Amino acid sequence: MSADIVPLPRKQPPSLEPMLSLTANGMNAVNAVILERMQSEIPLIPRLAGYLISGGGKRLRPMLTLAGAALVGYEGTRHYKLAAAVEFIHTATLLHDDVVDGSELRRGKAAANIIFGNPATVLVGDFLFSRAFELMTEDGSLKVLRILSNASAVIAEGEVSQLTAQRQIETSEERYLHIIGAKTAALFAAASQISAVVAECGEEQERALEDYGRNLGVAFQLVDDAIDYDSDAAEMGKDPGDDFREGKMTLPVILAYARGSEDERKFWKDAIMGHRTSDADLAHAIELMARHNAVHDTRERARHFAQRAIDAISIFPDSKARQAMAEAAQFAVARGY
Question: By C-alpha distance, which of 158, 122, 25 is closest to 83?
Fold first, then answer.
């Protein structure tokens, strides 16, 4: 099967709107499953789960499952429950992340752990993981179960790896990419791949969708890490500088440290160890990043992975689905939130 060259369009700012339009009807079905399966006789569970699920997220991961199904011409309904399972996995990881990170904001409002406390937040995250696995087993496909359960394990490994890299100034770019490939890109890849599985596509199409999701996920996380240093709280929906104050070794820090003078490296060592956390320190960190193009180059790397995502689906015929997925990749690197 020959492949087209699909360049990133440059005519107008990219938008998620084509993806939203493509998946709108399907997302109504997915949202119905989510609403049904987050219910419990324990009132705190739907209250806490609903607080985050209804909190304004882009729902990009379940949309990837629906978009992939449209791309390969699948006309069944199995993917609705599976897309809901993907969203439950993602939401569970967010709940756990906010506890681990001590986050105060999520999507522009107080994080669930601030409202409901750490114990309840962790336990409701566990509940959502369990609901996700119920949905997977109901589908009946061992291959789908293997893909999503493996992704869940890889995400957890990625989070632990990130935790062990925290405040480790010598973290390499290679290790950083490995971490985000696990904690973020694994679910993007699985969400995209399962649409080809339910459609009973061949291995080439399945690998293409997996590659699309994986590269999109890396690009998405690279931009998330850039956003911590070049967007304000109103735009990004969390406190600016959270990663900086938590000592997270993200790519902007890795690049700025590698390119810095001896004095600048000392600043970064002190900052990552938690000794330079004031607003003035954050402002200085941002100035150093600008001096060495660290945020700019992080976004450039994101563009590279976004193009790889677009190239991966070039094996499919041109269609509204392929165009929407290509623009979603472009949007992922152009966004400021």
Answer: 25
Residue 232 pLDDT? 62
User: What is the longest distance spanned by two Cα atoms in the chain?
Assistant: 60
**In terms of Cα–Cα distance, which of 213, 219, 222 is closest to 243?**
222
- Interatomic CA distance for residues 260 and 295, integer angstroms: 14
- Whole-structure pTM value: 0.92
CA distance 117 to 120: 6
- Sign of the C-alpha dihedral, residues 5, 7, 11, 12? positive
Check whether 49 has a pLDDT greater than 80: yes
pLDDT in tens, 284-326: 999 999 999 999 999 999 999 999 999 999 999 999 999 999 9
C-beta separation of 106 from 238 below 8 A? yes
In three-state form (DSSP H/G/I as H, E/B as E, the rest C), the secondary structure along the chain is CCCCCCCCCCCCCCCCHHHHHHHHHHHHHHHHHHHHHCCCCCCHHHHHHHHHHCCCCCCHHHHHHHHHHHHCCCCCCHHHHHHHHHHHHHHHHHHHHHHHHCCCEECCEECHHHHHCHHHHHHHHHHHHHHHHHHHHHHCCHHHHHHHHHHHHHHHHHHHHHHHHCCCCCCCHHHHHHHHHHHHHHHHHHHHHHHHHHCCCCHHHHHHHHHHHHHHHHHHHHHHHHHHHHCCHHHHCCCCCHHHHCCCCCHHHHHHHHHCCHHHHHHHHHHHCCCCCCHHHHHHHHHHHHHCCHHHHHHHHHHHHHHHHHHHHHHCCCCHHHHHHHHHHHHHHHCCC
